[in-house]
């Protein structure tokens, strides 16, 4: 009798936790509006490159992969942010940003916020002074979410690693900003995914602040 109950509970949990996990899903990461300070060094993003390593059937869940093995289709990989799994760790459906938005867009938006909050002006090509602004190059090494299986709960993880390079003191050899967050839930609903992604991006912003303030302190 106990075995029957245990089996039934396991089946129910699998249904609840996976839900539509075999399908491709979409989650939007909202842009954050930030404004330039009245003064400060002017920066411009001249390159933002997605250098994440997508693999077919990777051994580790934190390595980006896609359900349909579209790892060479940049129209898909540029939007891919996570892979769903069941309680046994089996890879299922993936999660993309909505059409028209890319990981590069999100990273540039969050970096702009971080720089502006720490005294830099981030200019677009329509802004006065853009031509003379300091060029900034960005390489996205990690920006990915995945499951950590569990019987009574599952962990949703999200990790970022972004390298920023610029011909100014402190950035000339590249500075890495990163974050990693895990929260445990009973289900992997879209709202829970959003919670973890936003927490990870908040941690990323804290790391940006810490690194920039360290550079500013060392240059005085």
What is the molecular shape? elongated
Quaternary state of this entry equals single chain
CATH class: Alpha Beta
Write the H/E string, N to C.
Answer: HEEHEEHEEEEH
How many domains, in number, for the residues? Answer: 1
- DSSP strand tally: 8
Described by strand count, sense and barrel closure, the largest sheet is: 5 strands, mixed
Please name the CATH architecture: 2-Layer Sandwich
Distance, first to last CA: 72 Å
> Percent of residues in helical segments?
25-40%
In brief:
Helix content is 29%, strand content 29%. The chain has 220 residues and is of the alpha/beta class. It is elongated, with a radius of gyration of 20 Å.
Topology (SSEs and partners):
Blueprint: H1 2-18, E1 25-26, E2 42-50, H2 74-77, E3 80-85, E4 91-96, H3 103-116, E5 121-122, E6 134-148, E7 154-165, E8 175-185, H4 190-218
Parallel strand pairs: 1-4, 2-5, 2-6
Antiparallel strand pairs: 3-4, 6-7, 7-8
Structural overview:
This protein has 220 residues and is of the alpha/beta class. The protein has one domain (2-218): Double Stranded RNA Binding Domain, CATH 3.30.160. It has 4 helices and 8 strands. The strands form 2 sheets. Strands 5-2-6-7-8 form a 5-stranded mixed sheet, with helices on one face. A hairpin with a 5-residue loop joins strand 3 (80-85) and strand 4. Helix 3 (103-116) crosses helix 4 (190-218). 27% of the residues are buried.
């Amino acid at each position: 009798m106990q075995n029957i109950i245990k089996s039934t509970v396991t089946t129910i949990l699998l249904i609840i936790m996976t839900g539509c996990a075999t399908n491709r899903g979409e989650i939007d990461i909202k842009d954050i509006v930030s404004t330039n300070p009245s003064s400060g060094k002017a920066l411009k993003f001249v390159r933002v490159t997605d250098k994440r390593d997508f693999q077919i059937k990777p051994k580790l869940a934190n390595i980006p992969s896609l359900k349909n093995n579209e790892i060479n289709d940049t129209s898909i990989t540029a939007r891919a942010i996570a892979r769903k799994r069941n309680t046994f760790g089996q890879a299922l459906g993936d999660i993309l940003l909505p059409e028209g938005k890319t990981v590069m867009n999100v990273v540039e938006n969050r970096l702009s916020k971080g720089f502006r909050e720490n005294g830099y002006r981030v200019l677009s090509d329509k802004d006065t002074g853009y031509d003379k602004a300091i060029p900034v190059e960005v390489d996205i090494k990690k920006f990915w979410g995945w499951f950590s299986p569990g019987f009574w709960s599952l962990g949703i993880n999200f990790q970022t690693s972004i390298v920023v390079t610029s011909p100014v003191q402190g950035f000339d050899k590249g500075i890495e900003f990163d974050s990693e967050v895990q929260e445990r839930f009973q289900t992997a609903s879209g709202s829970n995914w959003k919670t973890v992604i936003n927490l990870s991006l908040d941690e990323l912003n804290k790391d940006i602040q810490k690194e920039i303030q360290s550079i500013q302190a060392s240059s005085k």
